Amino acid sequence: MIFADLSEYFEKLEATSSRLSLIEILSDLFKHIESENEIEEVCYLVQGRIAPFFEATEIGMAEKGVAEAIGKAYGESKDHVLTQFDHKGDMGKVAFELAKEHKARASDITIDGVVKILTEIAKTSGEGTVEKRITLLSDLLKKVDAVSAKYLVRIPLSNLRLGIGDPTILDALATVKLGDKKQRHYLEGAYNRTSDLGLIAKTLWSAKNPVVAVEKIEKLEVTVGKPIRAELCERLPSPQKVIEKMGEVDAQYKYDGFRVQIHKDGEKISMFSRNLENMTHMFPELIEGAKKQIKAHSAILDCEALAYNPESEEFLPFQETTKRRRKHGVEEMAQKLPLKAFVFDMLYKNGKSLIDEPLTKRLEILADTINGDETLIPTQTKTIKDAKKLAIMLDDAITKGLEGVVIKKLSSKYEAGGRNFNWVKLKRHQTGELKDTIDCVILGYITGKGKRTAFGAGALLVGVYDEKQDMFVTVSKIGTGLSDEEWRSIKEKSHGLESNHKPARVDSVITPSVWLKPEIVIEVLADEITRSPIHTAGRKDDEPGYALRFPRLVSFRNKDKKPEDATTVKELIEMFNQQGKK
Ligand code: ATP
What we know:
Blueprint: H1 3-15, H2 19-31, H3 36-45, H4 63-74, H5 78-88, H6 91-101, H7 111-123, H8 129-141, H9 146-154, H10 166-178, H11 185-194, H12 197-205, H13 210-218, E1 232-235, H14 239-246, E2 249-254, E3 258-265, E4 268-272, H15 284-293, E5 298-309, E6 314-315, H16 318-321, H17 330-336, E7 339-349, E8 352-353, H18 359-369, E9 376-378, E10 381-384, H19 387-399, E11 404-409, E12 419-427, E13 438-446, E14 459-466, E15 471-478, H20 484-493, E16 498-499, E17 506-507, E18 514-516, E19 521-525, E20 528-532, E21 545-549, E22 552-556, H21 569-578
Parallel strand pairs: 1-12, 7-9, 15-17
Antiparallel strand pairs: 2-10, 2-11, 3-4, 3-5, 5-6, 5-7, 7-8, 11-12, 13-14, 13-18, 13-19, 14-15, 16-18, 19-22, 20-21
The protein binds adenosine-5'-triphosphate (ATP).
């Protein structure tokens, strides 16, 4: 397919405000693609990338460089392009207008042709990199029409933002190759094991018919180098409820750092965050630790990384640890704030997946595989069947400055991407009242009167994630309690996310003054969850939705959470049902 045709599909995808049409447009696009290689490329491109999300392949061009490339392609100065960019706030629109003025015409450059050049840009290194990248991009722009230019320049800037979630792509793949989006469940296991949509698509395209396709997909196994989607926790209100529901359990401390999946493949170490981002280069001390301490040729470990002082047994708070999530000054920060990785699970060893083994067996293998506890520290675990003992452990965890405990079913498999009662978290304040926070996605803002007008917003419209429908649904408006600093920060973060129509994956009764593409995740504390007819979270026919009472902003979470990692409707309803129960 030529790139200009793909860009026409991008145009349609960007314009729609319905999720069903997203699936229809994507399915139509996929139907026109024949080769395995091309479908793989398209799956990454619709998400604005040239490789899977977890690969560190970044095209690495800043606004100035892209502006220069646009200028060179259309005979304008870089400054002129940058001035236009200041006006329009979107480099894509600037490229589109200039390309139109210069009557740019499409050549027959294919999708593969474009991807090859973008890959070359990404791989360029050494002396003169910036100039070489600019030349490659401007030469490429000369080969495409205005609509293609619009989407093309957004890719190196990492802001294509078509608003398509992974489940929506899976729906479209299932529609085309398995006959119906309802067949998506056949693809979900492989997706949870490999996190690689391109690989799933390529595998589907390599099969002659749906039966063979499903067989091939089911054979896609856990692979070192591809992150496994994390298993997550359910909530229960008290140690008593935990023991009642789960019987004898394995209890572990809940460390408050960030999740890191460490992959070892011979001497090659890679690390991924909970939202599947590649974090390998951020933590040199963990790379060293993994090389030294893992006694296996290949392995995958599930860990929580945080700063810890073994002498004083002090765990540093999350706000400190999170300073390590940065791309620059890595070595210096590694000296200042070295991390330890508390290893709580082992998912792969020496070429074999362990995810179907029971927890007890995985923990035994883990204990046998890690040498010492210098940097990688195997988590202490306790088998408990008595609620009192569990309550003591929870108190002990809190005294130590930890977040609480995670309780796990002894016989459970590792359920990649799952959140169920195999893992349950008990936190500090969980004594019945709602004290656990909720991760919300900002969906828009409502222009305010008075003081707030200076920042252009009086309230935020926020929502949670409906994972069944792959939609964002509203739970609250947040107005009071935000400091001027926080408003400013929200304003900055939302720059470029404004949309002139309701984003396709948003369901809302309230229409805000400005819609925002669902990207910014915030942590919110509320007094209570109530039922409300004006919110769409969990709303069914005549039944009202769920809403937050007295919500307030606790922190921004967009560094470690994708919008799809926000609290789900299912979790919200469970929290509602547990309110007030001890
Ligand atoms: P929270 O904000 O409560 O951490 P979350 O939505 O980020 O919630 P949960 O599923 O609620 O994630 O809690 C699980 C998280 O706790 C894991 O993702 C992991 O980062 C962290 N964690 C800390 N210690 C453990 C442990 N021993 N076992 C499993 N997860 C742990």
